Amino acid sequence: MKNTTAIMEQALSGSADKHNGRRSFSAIALCICFAVIIAFVLYYPKWQKQGPEATISYDVAGYYMYLPATIIYHDLKGLSFQDEVLRKYNYTSGPYQAVALPSGGYTMKYPIGAAVMYLPFFLIGHGIATVSSYPADGYSTPYQCLLSLGCLCYAFLGLWLLRKLLLKWFSDTVTGLTLVILVCATNYLNYSAIDNAMTHNLLFTVYVALIWFTVRFWEKKELKVAFRIGMLCGLATIIRPTEIISVLIPVLWGLKNLRDIPERLRFFLRGYRYVLLFALGAFLFGAIQLMYWKYSTGSWFFYSYEEQTFSWLHPHLKDGLISYQKGWFIYTPVMLLIVPGSIFLYRYKRDAFWAISVFICINIYIAFSWDIWWYGGSLGQRSMVQSYALLTLPIASLLTFLLQQKWLRVAPVYIFCAACVWYNIVLTLQAHGKDSYFESEHMTRNYFWSTFGKLHVDRSLTRFIDSNDKYRATSAIKRNFLDRF
């Protein structure tokens, strides 16, 4: 046992790695190529789609509307262009992206943070549209294309930085396997390659950067790093306000047990300069949202989600985790690995255990306290995607342990991971295929099992969405995976 522990600790430190990053580099190259194929070859690119399937559609249109409203139409409060572009591009069934105010005018329903991250690519798209034959209206092909490409770049940046982060603690082999599981076995694939303009892809990269600078801060305690951490927490919060809990990561990182808490508190009291710079960094981004609300509504704070709210005393935990409608573990079963993985994270990387565990528990509670806990039309639980930046650590810890064992003892885990890769790819193809029949909002047990693992189905199976009939498997319509192409 002592020998096993020593081997494990050596592997976690990365000192046992003799491949100098080649395997993890190959893995990340494979993941990026796979994401590009999904994004540009299989049924897409999304920016070529029309109406509700376009990159700028539904919720993304709301996150994005700040930019054309400010830079092109100069009408951030009145949004007089909204009806015209909606008729022209049909990006959603109705103009729900902004809230009409009793005093007149509008305020955006969605926070401003995603628009901040879209801005560089919007400007490039606007420049192309201005000098070309495309309409410079904020919604034509150059804008759609640049937004998709830009968010794909954010995804690749997040993966590249995550690889560097994992290599600090884990072997080259473990890092490569972890990246493959993340990209190929979870709905991160969908939100990095296809629906990448959604906030979850952006937040994933923000969280990876936050962990990176948090680790650096507790190693060197630099004032400039505290400022950057504050900026990242502020940015995360104005992308999705519930991400204010991101502050837990730098605050709790490095705590190994309860006895460390008093010393951590004393550090923050003595090191008030770190706290002040963190607060300044957070305020620089947070102020953008506050100033917008003040400008559009006259108040510094405004709740724009109207009747949509949280049920704090009655969270939908069971539905959010294991329901057929949108259960996290039903649609991303590979995340079950975080349960045993957390045990090994506690044993071998305890300074990260409490920060990750507390954050994930609170994040799950908040995500599933939201009354629309299924989060609309999505592939799996999109509300959890950004937290994968943290959850790769317990998965990597588990893989480190498994690689020290004999193959036959742990073969079921590897088979499970391979099955999860297959399952996730099938779900992605079901959701975005030419004849998509994946039911993203009203999935039932019967319809789930009647379509499980299939890329071609009898349309009559849709009766299982609205009926209580029991599905009984038949030998009908089972075709080869490659028939899809």
How would you describe this protein?
This protein has 22 helices and two strands. With 485 residues, the protein is mainly alpha-helical. A two-stranded antiparallel sheet has the order 1-2. The radius of gyration is 23 Å and the shape is globular. The N terminus and C terminus are likely disordered.
Distance between the termini: 50 Å
| Structural class by helix and strand composition | mainly alpha
- Unreliable parts: 1-16, 471-485
Total number of beta strands: 2
Count the DSSP helices. Answer: 22
Order of helices and strands: HHHHHEEHHHHHHHHHHHHHHHHH
What is the radius of gyration? 23 Å
| DSSP helix fraction | 55-70%
Main pleated sheet: 2 strands, antiparallel
Report the average pLDDT across residues: 88
Taking strands numbered 1, 2, ... along the chain, how are they ordered across the largest sheet?
1-2
- Beta-strand portion reads under 5%
Categorize the overall geometry: globular
Properties at a glance:
60% helix, mainly alpha, 22 helices, two-stranded antiparallel ribbon, disordered C terminus, 485 residues, disordered N terminus, globular
